[in-house]
Specification:
Low-confidence stretches: none
Number of strands: 11
Mean pLDDT: 96
Distance between the termini: 40 Å
Helix content: 25-40%
Number of domains: 1
Strand order of the largest sheet: 6-7-5-4-8-9-11-10
CATH class: Alpha Beta
Number of helices: 7
Shape: globular
């Protein structure tokens, strides 16, 4: 499948799968979307010293990288697991402009190392961030009560509906700790129904630029968002 680098409306880059007309991040702004969906509505809801995060769809590493920057800023210890079946090629990683767009010029080596680090083993990035990359399909997730927060960043329902099934959400639900949270950019009715069917309490909140709504799933507690 043809892949090309494009610049989104906030100036940050992403990768487009041409045949599907699908991108790793929103064309309205890759960095804006990542901060709104995963940081504002996910990470910032946890006022704790440490937490465990699972990302479903490690992709370009943008969500992991901004979480790393937040961990440094807040001195919050984060264990971050990224699940990805088809890793982004090294040549593509070198073209991504996230460090310059985020004005994190001194962190370029860290971002590159996110992608160069070994799969299936923990890597330390300073005092506050540990990364584990797992090369696996989403259907292979069999963890039990390991994560406080899940970033669900799969390709869209319109191109890969199988990734938004009850089975996938059931696997994520089981992998969350009690009172865990799942955040996703999606807002489709069928996705909400599948989330609720496996036990999530689902709440729609305002979405990132270009999207009216997004969803948050809660395990075993009432939302205060």
């Amino acid at each position: 499948m043809e892949r090309k680098l494009i610049t989104t409306l906030d100036g940050s880059t992403t990768i487009q799968l041409v045949e599907w007309d699908e991108c790793y991040h929103s064309k309205m702004g890759a960095i804006q979307e990542a901060y709104h969906v995963f940081i504002k509505n996910g990470l910032e809801q946890f006022d704790v010293d440490s937490l465990s995060i699972l990302e479903i769809g490690f992709g370009t590493g943008l969500n992991a990288f901004i979480t790393y920057l937040e961990a440094l800023n807040k001195k919050q210890t984060i264990q971050y697991t990224g699940l990805e079946a088809y890793p982004v090629h090294e040549d593509e990683v070198k073209l991504l402009n996230y460090c310059s767009q985020l004005e994190a010029f001194d962190q370029e080596a860290v971002f590159q190392e996110f992608h160069k680090s070994e799969w299936e083993q923990w890597s330390d990035f300073g005092d506050y961030f540990k990364l584990l990359k797992r090369k696996a399909f989403f259907q292979e997730l069999n963890d039990e009560s390991l994560y406080d927060l899940i970033y669900f960043d799969a390709f869209g329902f319109q191109v890969q509906p199988e990734l938004w099934s009850e089975d996938i959400f059931a696997r994520m639900y089981r992998s969350l700790k009690s009172k865990g949270v799942l955040v996703t950019y999606a807002a489709r009715g069928v996705v909400k129904r599948n989330m609720k069917a496996v036990g999530f309490e689902v709440k729609k909140v305002p979405g990132p630029p270009g999207k009216r709504e997004m969803m948050i799933g809660f395990k075993n507690f009432e939302s205060t968002i």
